[in-house]
Write a structure and sequence with these properties.
With 496 residues, this protein is mainly α. The chain folds into three domains: 16-203, MFS general substrate transporter like domains (Growth Hormone, Chain: A), CATH 1.20.1250.20; 217-266; 271-496, MFS general substrate transporter like domains (Growth Hormone, Chain: A), CATH 1.20.1250.20. 76% of the residues lie in helices and 0% in strands. The chain has helices spanning 24-43, 48-55, 63-86, 88-107, 112-140, 143-175, 177-195, 217-234, 242-261, 270-273, 278-290, 298-304, 311-334, 340-362, 367-395, 401-435, 439-447, 450-454, 458-495. It is globular and about 60 Å long.
Length: 496
């Protein structure tokens, strides 16, 4: 993919311009809403054991997270159509208000079932906020400032990615798990104040308006069922998940058939992986599937591999996060003078190189080198995701910015879900084959304590190290396949 000259003056772009006249309100909204979602997603996970102890039903505690993730992803897509029809401002106001109120309700929840219900509302509200916020970047900010805005948001996410678990644990230690939900409320209020009037209103009619403009409830239902089946099927790496995954596949086929024939579809198929949308949507999907999933297993790998004091485990969980944040900031400056396609290509090179380093060093348990490889891979993730989103907002017309941005975010979320499942499948299969069973590994992951980790046999430890190496190779292979696919489609398009 050849580089092309930039078509705008970016020679003097500075981060301070994000806070200049007419731009500062949008920047503050993006940063505040990013902080709100980042803190919620990372802090709540730290108090799940205490929620289970207080409200009971340990067998359902995972739904406190799942009940947030599914509506966040699905309603985020639906909110894209809302942004394109009634405007980002109303969508944002509804979302941030719902988020604040559902956070209060979650803090007061008397039972686990009521907490799960409030988490559904919280997740749906989050999807609306994310959709409106991302769309606003493409609608309200000059193109020359978008890369800087995304880099600033990535920095906020990275800082809270490091600090939120510790903050959540600290709040829980002194005030209990309910205080974590109360702590979300003032952040949501700040986000509401920052974006209440800053987020743009309606931006015009869609490219091909239909007289009725009916909402696609069937499409939303199919997407919700598909997402639920996919997350549930991938949440447990076992043969019992196969029927659920087959059901997800059938729902995907049904959804594709429906959006192709509906007069007012939830999303337009060609705006997902068609034509100019292929690279900006498929590239970050591959990045999210190949790299971030290692964060779910890296701590266990470090501890059972001999890191008794937990030093490298603590450092390792930050490898991808710090790399991601750094990559996003570097990309924001590189994009001043280079095309998105070139920056994405560099990002893929970094991810593949980093994962190859992990593959070589993980089997030998060279922990510093493993984490160096994850940092490099994280650089590639930040570079790729930043450039991909900017490319998407450059090729998408303003009248469909909501749908395009929301589906882009949905594909990223699905990529993470698939990535965690693929890495877990490789790890469990390797331990199963080499050590005669993966029960010890499942127990250690499920219980997350040193006693369970210490019970893992030496054979299982060696198999886990080999599994990490193989998982890194699989991730690199996914990236290579996607790069080849995009290049092939590009050549095919040019030949026509």
């Amino acid at each position: 993919m050849a580089d092309v000259a930039r078509d705008r003056d970016v020679s003097s772009v500075r981060f301070s311009e994000l806070f200049g006249p007419g731009v500062a309100p949008i920047t503050l909204m993006v940063l505040a809403s990013t902080a709100m979602n980042a803190f919620e997603g990372l802090a709540v996970a730290t108090v799940l054991p205490d929620i289970a102890n207080d409200l009971g039903r340990v067998d359902l505690i995972g739904w406190v997270v799942t009940a947030y993730l599914i509506p966040s992803a699905v309603i985020g897509v639906a909110a894209g159509s809302l942004v394109d029809s009634v405007g980002a401002r109303l969508t944002y106001r509804l979302g941030v208000t719902g988020f604040a109120l559902s956070s209060i309700a979650a803090a007061l929840a008397p039972t686990l079932f009521s907490l799960i219900a409030f988490r559904v509302i919280q997740g749906a509200s989050s999807g609306m906020v994310i959709s409106a916020g991302l769309s606003s970047i493409g609608i309200a900010l000059p193109e020359r400032l978008r890369a800087r805005a995304l880099a600033a948001a990535s920095t906020i996410w990275g800082v809270l990615g490091i600090g939120s678990p510790a903050i959540g644990a600290l709040i829980n230690q002194f005030s209990g798990w309910r205080a974590v939900f109360w702590a979300i409320v003032p952040i949501a209020i700040v986000a509401a104040v920052a974006g209440w009037n800053a987020v743009p209103t309606a931006v015009g009619q869609p490219d091909q308006p239909h007289p009725a403009r009916r909402f696609d409830w069937l499409g939303l239902t199919l997407l919700a069922l598909f997402t639920t089946a996919l997350i549930l099927g991938l949440s447990k790496v076992a043969a019992s998940s196969i029927p659920t995954l087959l059901g997800a596949g059938a729902l995907a086929v049904g959804l594709a058939w429906w959006v192709g024939r509906s007069a007012t579809p939830l999303f337009v198929a060609k705006e997902v992986l068609g034509g100019p949308y292929l690279l900006p949507n498929l590239a970050p999907f591959g990045a999210m599937a190949a790299v971030p999933g290692f964060n779910s297993f890296i701590v266990l790998y470090a501890r059972v591999s001999g890191d008794q004091v937990g030093l490298w485990a603590a450092i390792g969980i930050l490898g991808v996060t710090l790399g991601w944040t750094t990559g996003a900031n570097v990309a924001s400056r590189a994009l001043d003078h280079r095309s998105e396609r070139l920056v994405i290509t560099v990002g893929y090179g970094l991810m593949i190189s980093g994962l190859v380093v992990v593959a070589i060093s993980a089997a030998q348990v060279w922990l510093p080198i493993v984490y160096a490889g994850l940092f490099v891979a994280g650089l590639g993730v930040g570079t790729t995701t930043n450039a991909s989103f900017l490319l998407l907002q450059r090729v998408a017309p303003e009248s469909s910015m909501g749908r395009a941005s929301s589906m882009h975010q949905y594909l990223r979320a699905v990529g993470v879900t698939i990535g965690v499942a693929v890495i877990g499948a490789v790890l469990f299969a390797t331990v199963e084959q080499r050590a005669g069973g993966a029960g010890e590994l499942r127990d250690a992951l499920g219980e997350g304590n040193e006693t369970a980790e210490a019970a893992i046999s030496p054979d299982a430890v060696d198999a886990l190290a080999l599994g990490m190496s193989l998982a890194a190779l699989v991730g690199a292979g996914i990236l290579v396949l996607i790069a080849l696919l995009v290049s092939w489609v590009d050549r095919l398009s040019r030949s026509r």
